[in-house]
Amino acid sequence: MTDNVLVEIDNVSKSFPGVKALDSVSLNIFSGEVHVLIGENGAGKSTLIKILTGVYQKDSGKVRFKDKEVNFQTPRQAMQEGISVIHQELSLIPDLTVADNIFLGREKAKGQFLEKAFMQNKTKEILDSLELNIDPNIKVENLNTAQRQMVEIARSVSWGSSLVIMDEPTSSLSEKEVKSLFNIILKLKKENVGIVYISHRLKEIPEIGDRVTILRDGKIVKTLLEKESNEKKLISLMVGREIKDYYHFKKKDKKEEKVKVLEINNLTHEPYFRSLSFFLNQGEILGIAGLMGAGRTELLRAIFGVDLFHKGEIFLQNNKVKFNHPDKAIKNKIGFITEDRREQGLLLDKSVIENISLPVIKFKANRGFIDKNWEKQVSQQFKKKLQIKTPSIYSDVKNLSGGNQQKVIIARWLAAESDILLLDEPTRGIDVNAKAEIYALMNDFVNNGGSILMVSSELPEILGVAHRIIVMRKGELSGTLTREEATEEKVMHLAALK
Amino acid sequence: MIREEQQRMNPKRIKFGDYGLVITFIIICIFISIMTPRFLLPQNIRNIMIQISINALIATGMSFVILTGGIDIGVGSVAALAGIVVTAICKGFPEASIFFYIIIGLLVSLVVGLLCGGFNALVITKFNVHPFIATLGMLSIARGFAFVYTGSKPIFGLPDSFGWIGQGYIGPIPVLVLIMIIVLSLAHIFLNKTVLGRYVYAVGSNEEVAELNGINVAKIKFLVYILSGILSSLAGVCLASRLISGQPAAATGYELNAIAAVVMGGISMTGGKGKIWNTIMGLLTIGVINNGMSLMRVSSYWQTIVMGFIIVAAVCIDQYKVKKA
After folding, report:
1. For chain A, which residues make up each domain, given as ranges?
2. Which residues of chain B have a Cβ shorter than 8 Å from any chain A Cβ?
3. ipTM score of the complex?
4. Separation CA B132–CA A84 (nearest Å)
5. Which CATH class is domain A5-239?
6. Number of structural domains in chain B
7. Which residues 281-320 of chain A have a CB within 8 Å of chain B?
8. How many angstroms separate the CA of residue B129 from the nearest CA in chain A?
9. DSSP string covering A467-483, please?
10. CA 20 to 30 Å from B178, out of A20, A89, A234, B192?
11. What does the alpha-carbon distance between residue A371 and residue A376 come to, in Å, rounded to a whole number?
12. pTM score of the predicted model
């Protein structure tokens, strides 16, 4: 790390009507360092980033970039000066090729004609310099999430950015892909690029960060060197207190008789997965580990009746079932929490109450008429029980924070009186506090006789929460581990190598 | 970020969008009544209500379709076809009672609506054709049948009693206006109180989420296109009764008026957002504008131009709202 200051944020404040989103924040970012920003949702991370990149304008204070005071009015301005952002929601155009995307908005052209060959060669150069094995001529829609992210990074490199801001870059990557992302970050560091890295995954910090800044309620709590930090300390700084028993795990009583509530036999859905056989006991959280593309999401979709499967059997309480529509699964008291909350989980422009009652209003209906009393009562009940932070049950869910949105979805399936929950990455993009609450809810659920099948790419989460873990690799079952025998190394070994 | 969100969620903030159209409507009314005092005569107000009633039936079906995120531009042709079918049948029973004509009218609406709407929905759901194209096909097909069957000549020679639906009164209230009120009320109940109504919104809001929550999206689409077909056919029957004849060229361009009413009322073209109340306000506004222009002797060609601009403006406002949200 060289000690030349790349960005100097000096006493910056930003208010929104009635709220101080940033309160006299001062922070330096050096060239060639990875500066991790952490904080709960609402701590001010996003506001700070948006001021740096010209989305918002600060109320007071100064920002100096490369020793020059700057005041960007638009993101494009910031990008031209050398500040780029890799967003959580990727901003590539799927229909265009990698090269087209990298040159989007500043295409090289002779007159009205694009110089395709030039752009392709240039793209190849950039990709090679990052040691990325991606074809510049392939359409982005054919790339997986990790590769798309790499393309975004390549794009910011191509702009010659000297500050790259990464907003939860690893939230949708598998452990292996995270490794290659980190390699690229190291390369950028060597070229003296400053990196601001926002993450909810505290485990990553020792691996990648040089310094960590903790934000809380719009103020900087502390900036630490990486070596001074540890997970517990960071969490307590973030939330202002220590969270005890993060995963809320409760050991099962050994004497309890095990009842198989769900049994999967030789299930096959080419090309996603094949010959899967396993079972889920009552009162158990069964974790499904594996890399992205291992077929885990598709497995849940097949069980829930979203996708059909070719071969195999599903037994529910020892009865053979085959759902041809989610409707049937819901009738059999199964709930499905998808990984993409915004696109597949919620009706964003609808209210909390409508989102909670959605799958079961028809079962509670009276001759086709909605039972509005039931709907209201059950929504109020779960708003209170799950402590969903919303002004009212009639507010649109799109205005809630990620953690509260996820609670709305959980409330939905609790209101549906589900016996089995299929969870796909249940805590993605959610802050630490909300994560802990969701783990508590999951434990509550299984302690009251429910059972959970949980797909997760976060190893600490799966190790912390699950009673048993099955590992999938390229559509096949590569192993089953009990809670006691599971370690990160063993799971990774089963998921990746073999 | 939560804080910013709380700002946005502040329920006390009044949005202009909620009342904008009501205010616009009142301003238009004041303007027209200053220009032509005849505007506020009870006779004229009754005329306006009769004039919007047929559009109201079509616009109600259109509201359902647009709420699911679709569109139905074949409504005018379907109305014309239903008008031909009902007049062709009723012509064969010149001595029958009003009651008989009503029953035939309802049956024709159901059958024609079911066939045309069902066909639209089949093409849209099974073959994944965009609703605009699918119903564009229906616009041509239904109109074509109307012309082929009649040999492009109007069907005349119906008894006066056939005109009761379109011209009659129950007490002081025109039958057409009564039908409109019943249809709008049922539509309101359907959308607000029933499970299927809720599903219409869910499908328009996010089809994938709807499907994953056990809603049969294809079934809901069949429902809305069939309802749109039935209501368009009913409108066609009412129009035929009003004219006491079957005109193969009837209801041309009615899709424009219906879409204008729905969108101008504030139902979002992207689906999922809006109430029947919006459609009613759109109908009233357009009805008043048309009536005002007629009273001020603006030529009907100019009225068409104005209507076109109104639609474009309404969609622009809708897009602006979507972008802001």
Report:
1. 5-239, 260-496
2. 1-11, 193-196, 198, 201-202, 205-206, 208-216, 272-273, 325
3. 0.86
4. 40
5. alpha beta
6. 1
7. 304, 306
8. 20
9. SEEEEEETTEEEEEEET
10. B192
11. 9
12. 0.79
